[in-house]
Specification:
Layout (H helix, E strand, L loop, with lengths): L3 H16 L8 E4 L3 H10 L8 E4 L2 H9 L15 E4 L3 E2 L5 E2 L6 H10 L3 E6 L12 E5 L4 H10 L3 E4 L10 E6 L6 H9 L4 E4 L1 E2 L6 E6 L2 E5 L1
Helix pairs in contact: 1-2
The structure holds ribulose-5-phosphate.
Ribulose-5-phosphate binds next to helix 2 and helix 4.
Length: 223
């Protein structure tokens, strides 16, 4: 029986094998954030000469990439990326994701938007029928935390500020429990339209193109 840590290591290695054929010598790779991505960065390190550079979704991933000797580019200097690799807190069978457990959702959505493909990497425990058991992270401008919380409560959620946490953008995170997310794309638009919301952790308007899920029996691919 593999531990969750071993399952993450397996999918990190599988992701390296999956993305290397998509990269050319001048390619920039989009890199997400989280414990699974940390392992992906580690597994990628021996192959850093195979592509030009990375573009990262957090200070955490940037630091790890640089420690391994990768060049990390500012997104403003990058026009396109063949692939973006990131984890998820939940993913459904239609490749809609709920993300932001690590608080990097906004930069993740921005970097992913510049990539041609989003490859989600996770252990199988993240696969769900309906998103929303994991509290939905919403990044807000600090002065709007109370007004956004009232609007989220009106949508049926129970927002709680992630105490002591400030995002890489200077925002706050509201973790919203109690939402039954049966229409993820519609809810993503509704929440993103609330004044003061930077973005919410639903990735449904633009979900993953493929998911590599680590199971006790091996890697399962959803596409
Ligand atoms: C960070 C994220 C992560 O991708 C998500 O939280 C999954 O992390 P982990 O690989 O540690 O389970 O969205 O903002």
């Amino acid at each position: 029986m593999f531990t969750q840590q071993q399952l993450k290591e397996h999918v990190a290695q599988a992701a390296v094998e999956h993305i290397l054929p998509l990269l050319a010598a001048d390619s920039v790779l989009g890199v997400g954030t989280g414990s699974t991505v940390d392992l992906f960065i580690d597994a990628l390190a021996p192959h850093r000469e195979r592509f030009r550079a990375a573009c990262s979704s957090s200070e955490r991933s940037t630091q790890r990439l640089q420690q391994h000797g990768f060049q990390v580019l500012d997104l403003n200097t990058v026009e396109t990326m063949p692939v973006y690799v990131d984890g998820a807190d939940e993913i459904d069978g239609r490749l809609n994701m709920l993300k932001g457990g690590g608080g990097a959702l906004t930069r993740e959505k921005i970097v992913a938007s510049v990539a041609e493909r989003f490859v989600c990497i996770a252990d199988e425990s993240k696969l769900v029928d309906v998103l929303g058991k994991f509290p939905l992270p919403v990044e807000v401008i600090p002065m709007a935390a109370a007004s956004v919380s009232r609007r989220l409560a009106a949508l049926g959620g129970k927002p709680a500020r992630r105490e002591g946490f400030v995002t890489d953008n200077g925002g706050w995170i509201l973790d919203v429990s109690g939402l039954a997310i049966t229409a993820p794309a519609e809810l993503e638009s509704t929440i993103n339209d609330i004044p003061g919301v930077v973005t919410c952790g639903l990735f449904a308007l633009s979900g993953a193109d493929a998911a590599l899920l680590s199971t006790q029996q091996g890697i399962r691919t959803l596409a």
